[in-house]
Amino acid sequence: MPSPLPGGGGRSILIKSSQETAMLIGILQTGQAPEVLRTEMGDYPDMFVRLLANRGLTFKSFHVEGMEFPKDVHECDGWLITGSRHGAYEDHPFIRPLEDFIRKAFAERVPVVGICFGHQIIAQALGGKVEKFRGGWAVGPQNYDFGTEKVNLNAWHQDQVVERPAAAEVVGSNAFCENAALLYGDRAFTVQAHPEYGNDFIDGLMRTRGKGLVPDALMEDARARFSDRNSSAAIADRIADFFKQTRN
Question: What is the sign, positive or negative, of the torsion defined by CA atoms of 154, 160, 165, 166?
Fold first, then answer.
């Protein structure tokens, strides 16, 4: 398995590329993978670097969960907010500063991508509502309708965006999660599912965090669907294209 990127512990991580003109994306890390899985598969920034490899992007990581924030929204060309075990509506020190950062980036037209918690915190910062979904958990491979494309992505969430902001357009959904992907013009693109999670990581989450939290039947069903085609590469293309589109 790939080893974790150097750094962490509140320090920025710079992943260099031979492409001098590559767009610099700041990864805002809002949580950490379970320690035993980090050793084998890396932490969340590592997963996004692998997901978006060879697409003309370079990366710098900030551990915002540990209150390490960029100095300015223009420090990078775009921002990607990771998943987290925290709820966007919970009272953690990093939540309000992150919401302020999102609103400033949005106002200054610096593109932002959000995944799972990132999807939720962007919606909340811009006037939407996030809560624990009464329908329960989505775990493992899930099918989504992206309009012209049907995609299959791994999910791991109970929280959902239950009211989307006025600026948001639904571009991906299914029967369980109405607001599964949201587009805010050329300013933000967010996805509830986890294109960065492979089946091995989902299986690891079920082993390390799932017992007693997620119903056993849901986890068994998720494992039974691991053979389904995964669309992570297609979503990675969408993310890269979103970042690199021309903006006035």
Answer: positive
